[in-house]
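Intended use. Records like the one below are meant for learning the mapping from a protein sequence to its folded structure. Do not use them to infer anything beyond what is encoded.
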Amino acid sequence: TTWGIAADGIGAGATSEVFIDNESIITTNAASALGLSLDGNSTAIIDEGSSIVTNGFEAYGVDIGAGSSLTVDNGSRITTNGIDAWGVFAEDNSWVRVDNGSRVTTHGAGAHGMYGQEGSTLIVDNASRIRTHGLIARGIETRDDTELTVANGSMVETLGLTSRSLFIRDSSTATIDSSFISSLFSSEIYAETFFGGSNLNVQITGNDLNSGTGFIVLDNSAGGTLTVNGAANAAGLATSNGIPSGNVTEFGTITFSP
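Structure written out for the chain above:
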Protein backbone atom coordinates (compact mmCIF):
# COMPACT_ATOMS: atom_id res chain seq x y z
CA THR A 1 0.00 0.00 0.00
CA THR A 2 1.27 3.49 -0.90
CA TRP A 3 0.05 6.93 0.19
CA GLY A 4 2.02 9.53 -1.77
CA ILE A 5 1.51 11.41 -5.05
CA ALA A 6 2.94 9.36 -7.95
CA ALA A 7 3.88 6.60 -5.50
CA ASP A 8 3.29 3.53 -7.65
CA GLY A 9 2.42 0.21 -6.10
CA ILE A 10 4.86 -1.73 -8.31
CA GLY A 11 7.15 -0.44 -11.06
CA ALA A 12 8.91 -2.90 -13.37
CA GLY A 13 11.27 -2.36 -16.30
CA ALA A 14 14.20 -3.85 -18.21
CA THR A 15 12.61 -7.28 -18.90
CA SER A 16 11.43 -7.73 -15.32
CA GLU A 17 8.90 -10.40 -14.31
CA VAL A 18 6.10 -9.67 -11.84
CA PHE A 19 3.77 -12.24 -10.25
CA ILE A 20 0.83 -11.06 -8.12
CA ASP A 21 -0.81 -14.23 -6.89
CA ASN A 22 -3.01 -15.94 -4.28
CA GLU A 23 -5.46 -13.13 -3.50
CA SER A 24 -2.72 -10.51 -3.05
CA ILE A 25 -3.78 -6.85 -3.01
CA ILE A 26 -1.86 -3.81 -4.30
CA THR A 27 -3.37 -0.46 -3.22
CA THR A 28 -2.40 3.17 -3.92
CA ASN A 29 -4.01 6.25 -2.40
CA ALA A 30 -2.95 9.44 -4.19
CA ALA A 31 -3.01 11.24 -7.55
CA SER A 32 -0.94 9.68 -10.34
CA ALA A 33 -0.08 6.71 -8.12
CA LEU A 34 -0.24 3.79 -10.55
CA GLY A 35 -1.10 0.36 -9.25
CA LEU A 36 1.36 -1.33 -11.61
CA SER A 37 3.76 0.20 -14.14
CA LEU A 38 5.37 -2.03 -16.78
CA ASP A 39 8.05 -0.98 -19.26
CA GLY A 40 11.02 -2.35 -21.16
CA ASN A 41 9.57 -5.68 -22.36
CA SER A 42 8.55 -6.70 -18.86
CA THR A 43 5.94 -9.35 -18.02
CA ALA A 44 3.30 -9.38 -15.28
CA ILE A 45 0.67 -11.92 -14.21
CA ILE A 46 -2.14 -11.03 -11.80
CA ASP A 47 -3.67 -14.34 -10.83
CA GLU A 48 -5.91 -16.34 -8.48
CA GLY A 49 -8.25 -13.60 -7.29
CA SER A 50 -5.59 -10.96 -6.71
CA SER A 51 -6.41 -7.25 -6.92
CA ILE A 52 -5.02 -3.86 -7.83
CA VAL A 53 -6.93 -0.90 -6.33
CA THR A 54 -6.10 2.77 -6.92
CA ASN A 55 -7.67 5.83 -5.32
CA GLY A 56 -6.76 9.14 -6.91
CA PHE A 57 -6.80 11.47 -9.92
CA GLU A 58 -5.12 9.85 -12.96
CA ALA A 59 -4.16 6.87 -10.83
CA TYR A 60 -4.24 4.18 -13.51
CA GLY A 61 -4.63 0.59 -12.42
CA VAL A 62 -1.98 -0.55 -14.90
CA ASP A 63 0.22 1.52 -17.22
CA ILE A 64 1.97 -0.76 -19.70
CA GLY A 65 4.28 0.02 -22.61
CA ALA A 66 7.45 -0.75 -24.55
CA GLY A 67 6.51 -4.26 -25.64
CA SER A 68 5.53 -5.46 -22.18
CA SER A 69 2.78 -7.99 -21.46
CA LEU A 70 0.09 -8.36 -18.80
CA THR A 71 -2.26 -11.23 -17.99
CA VAL A 72 -5.12 -10.72 -15.53
CA ASP A 73 -6.46 -14.19 -14.85
CA ASN A 74 -8.74 -16.41 -12.76
CA GLY A 75 -11.10 -13.90 -11.21
CA SER A 76 -8.50 -11.21 -10.51
CA ARG A 77 -9.51 -7.54 -10.46
CA ILE A 78 -8.30 -4.07 -11.33
CA THR A 79 -10.36 -1.30 -9.71
CA THR A 80 -9.80 2.46 -9.90
CA ASN A 81 -11.51 5.30 -8.06
CA GLY A 82 -10.82 8.77 -9.40
CA ILE A 83 -11.21 11.22 -12.29
CA ASP A 84 -9.30 10.05 -15.38
CA ALA A 85 -8.14 6.98 -13.48
CA TRP A 86 -8.07 4.49 -16.36
CA GLY A 87 -8.15 0.81 -15.55
CA VAL A 88 -5.52 -0.23 -18.10
CA PHE A 89 -3.50 2.06 -20.37
CA ALA A 90 -1.57 0.11 -23.02
CA GLU A 91 0.79 1.62 -25.60
CA ASP A 92 3.89 0.97 -27.68
CA ASN A 93 3.25 -2.62 -28.83
CA SER A 94 2.23 -3.89 -25.41
CA TRP A 95 -0.07 -6.89 -24.89
CA VAL A 96 -2.89 -7.27 -22.35
CA ARG A 97 -5.21 -10.20 -21.68
CA VAL A 98 -8.08 -10.12 -19.17
CA ASP A 99 -9.24 -13.71 -18.87
CA ASN A 100 -11.33 -16.30 -17.02
CA GLY A 101 -13.83 -14.16 -15.16
CA SER A 102 -11.46 -11.33 -14.31
CA ARG A 103 -12.65 -7.73 -14.07
CA VAL A 104 -11.59 -4.17 -14.74
CA THR A 105 -13.84 -1.61 -13.00
CA THR A 106 -13.49 2.17 -12.87
CA HIS A 107 -15.34 4.89 -10.93
CA GLY A 108 -14.88 8.46 -12.09
CA ALA A 109 -15.36 10.90 -14.97
CA GLY A 110 -13.08 10.13 -17.89
CA ALA A 111 -11.98 6.87 -16.28
CA HIS A 112 -11.92 4.51 -19.26
CA GLY A 113 -11.83 0.79 -18.53
CA MET A 114 -9.12 -0.06 -21.07
CA TYR A 115 -7.29 2.17 -23.55
CA GLY A 116 -4.94 0.87 -26.23
CA GLN A 117 -2.77 2.70 -28.76
CA GLU A 118 0.42 2.41 -30.83
CA GLY A 119 0.10 -1.18 -32.00
CA SER A 120 -0.97 -2.70 -28.72
CA THR A 121 -3.17 -5.78 -28.29
CA LEU A 122 -6.14 -5.95 -25.91
CA ILE A 123 -7.99 -9.22 -25.23
CA VAL A 124 -11.03 -9.69 -22.99
CA ASP A 125 -12.01 -13.35 -22.91
CA ASN A 126 -13.94 -16.10 -21.16
CA ALA A 127 -16.65 -14.28 -19.21
CA SER A 128 -14.43 -11.41 -18.11
CA ARG A 129 -15.91 -7.96 -17.53
CA ILE A 130 -15.02 -4.33 -18.17
CA ARG A 131 -17.30 -1.84 -16.38
CA THR A 132 -17.11 1.93 -15.99
CA HIS A 133 -19.10 4.36 -13.83
CA GLY A 134 -18.63 7.98 -14.87
CA LEU A 135 -19.10 10.75 -17.42
CA ILE A 136 -17.22 10.09 -20.69
CA ALA A 137 -15.80 6.90 -19.20
CA ARG A 138 -15.58 4.53 -22.16
CA GLY A 139 -15.47 0.80 -21.64
CA ILE A 140 -12.66 0.17 -24.14
CA GLU A 141 -11.09 2.63 -26.56
CA THR A 142 -8.54 1.70 -29.24
CA ARG A 143 -6.50 4.01 -31.47
CA ASP A 144 -3.77 3.81 -34.09
CA ASP A 145 -3.30 0.17 -35.19
CA THR A 146 -4.32 -1.51 -31.94
CA GLU A 147 -5.90 -4.98 -32.04
CA LEU A 148 -8.94 -5.71 -29.85
CA THR A 149 -10.73 -8.98 -29.10
CA VAL A 150 -13.78 -9.33 -26.85
CA ALA A 151 -15.14 -12.88 -26.86
CA ASN A 152 -16.70 -15.92 -25.20
CA GLY A 153 -19.33 -14.46 -22.94
CA SER A 154 -17.34 -11.45 -21.81
CA MET A 155 -19.03 -8.15 -20.97
CA VAL A 156 -18.27 -4.48 -21.58
CA GLU A 157 -20.66 -2.17 -19.74
CA THR A 158 -20.75 1.61 -19.22
CA LEU A 159 -23.05 3.37 -16.77
CA GLY A 160 -22.22 7.06 -17.33
CA LEU A 161 -23.36 9.78 -19.73
CA THR A 162 -21.67 9.91 -23.16
CA SER A 163 -19.73 6.76 -22.30
CA ARG A 164 -19.50 4.49 -25.33
CA SER A 165 -18.97 0.85 -24.48
CA LEU A 166 -16.53 0.24 -27.35
CA PHE A 167 -14.88 3.10 -29.25
CA ILE A 168 -12.77 1.65 -32.07
CA ARG A 169 -10.75 4.25 -34.00
CA ASP A 170 -8.14 4.97 -36.66
CA SER A 171 -6.62 1.79 -38.15
CA SER A 172 -7.56 -0.58 -35.34
CA THR A 173 -8.70 -4.15 -35.87
CA ALA A 174 -11.50 -5.44 -33.64
CA THR A 175 -13.24 -8.79 -33.22
CA ILE A 176 -16.30 -8.63 -30.98
CA ASP A 177 -17.95 -12.03 -30.73
CA SER A 178 -20.48 -13.79 -28.49
CA SER A 179 -20.28 -11.16 -25.78
CA PHE A 180 -22.50 -8.75 -23.87
CA ILE A 181 -22.06 -5.07 -24.73
CA SER A 182 -24.15 -2.48 -22.91
CA SER A 183 -24.19 1.30 -22.51
CA LEU A 184 -26.78 2.95 -20.32
CA PHE A 185 -26.66 6.35 -22.06
CA SER A 186 -24.59 5.98 -25.27
CA SER A 187 -23.75 3.74 -28.24
CA GLU A 188 -22.71 0.17 -27.56
CA ILE A 189 -20.20 0.10 -30.43
CA TYR A 190 -18.80 3.13 -32.27
CA ALA A 191 -16.26 2.48 -35.04
CA GLU A 192 -14.66 5.57 -36.56
CA THR A 193 -11.93 6.34 -39.05
CA PHE A 194 -10.17 9.41 -37.75
CA PHE A 195 -8.37 10.59 -40.90
CA GLY A 196 -8.29 9.83 -44.62
CA GLY A 197 -5.50 7.27 -44.35
CA SER A 198 -7.25 5.16 -41.70
CA ASN A 199 -7.90 1.49 -42.47
CA LEU A 200 -10.29 0.22 -39.81
CA ASN A 201 -11.51 -3.39 -39.70
CA VAL A 202 -14.21 -4.76 -37.42
CA GLN A 203 -16.02 -8.06 -37.02
CA ILE A 204 -19.10 -7.87 -34.80
CA THR A 205 -20.97 -11.18 -34.58
CA GLY A 206 -23.34 -13.00 -32.27
CA ASN A 207 -23.38 -10.45 -29.46
CA ASP A 208 -26.06 -9.32 -27.02
CA LEU A 209 -26.19 -5.55 -27.41
CA ASN A 210 -28.08 -4.20 -24.42
CA SER A 211 -30.70 -6.96 -24.55
CA GLY A 212 -31.56 -6.27 -28.19
CA THR A 213 -31.86 -2.48 -27.91
CA GLY A 214 -28.22 -1.50 -28.52
CA PHE A 215 -26.70 0.65 -31.25
CA ILE A 216 -23.79 0.27 -33.67
CA VAL A 217 -22.36 3.36 -35.39
CA LEU A 218 -20.04 2.98 -38.40
CA ASP A 219 -18.46 6.37 -39.07
CA ASN A 220 -16.25 6.80 -42.14
CA SER A 221 -16.86 10.54 -42.47
CA ALA A 222 -13.09 11.08 -42.57
CA GLY A 223 -12.91 9.20 -45.88
CA GLY A 224 -10.59 6.35 -44.94
CA THR A 225 -11.53 2.67 -45.27
CA LEU A 226 -13.94 1.06 -42.82
CA THR A 227 -14.53 -2.64 -43.42
CA VAL A 228 -17.10 -4.76 -41.59
CA ASN A 229 -16.22 -8.45 -41.83
CA GLY A 230 -18.75 -11.23 -41.36
CA ALA A 231 -21.79 -9.33 -42.67
CA ALA A 232 -23.14 -8.64 -46.16
CA ASN A 233 -24.75 -5.33 -45.21
CA ALA A 234 -26.02 -3.26 -42.31
CA ALA A 235 -29.18 -5.34 -42.03
CA GLY A 236 -27.12 -8.53 -41.76
CA LEU A 237 -24.93 -6.93 -39.11
CA ALA A 238 -28.01 -5.99 -37.11
CA THR A 239 -29.51 -9.47 -37.40
CA SER A 240 -26.28 -11.11 -36.30
CA ASN A 241 -26.33 -9.04 -33.13
CA GLY A 242 -30.04 -9.23 -32.39
CA ILE A 243 -30.91 -5.55 -32.88
CA PRO A 244 -33.29 -3.76 -35.29
CA SER A 245 -31.75 -2.72 -38.61
CA GLY A 246 -32.49 0.91 -37.74
CA ASN A 247 -30.06 0.62 -34.84
CA VAL A 248 -27.10 0.46 -37.22
CA THR A 249 -26.04 3.91 -38.43
CA GLU A 250 -23.63 4.52 -41.31
CA PHE A 251 -21.68 7.68 -42.15
CA GLY A 252 -19.65 7.72 -45.36
CA THR A 253 -18.80 4.64 -47.39
CA ILE A 254 -18.79 1.36 -45.47
CA THR A 255 -17.39 -1.85 -46.99
CA PHE A 256 -19.11 -5.08 -45.98
CA SER A 257 -17.28 -8.39 -46.43
CA PRO A 258 -19.33 -11.50 -45.64
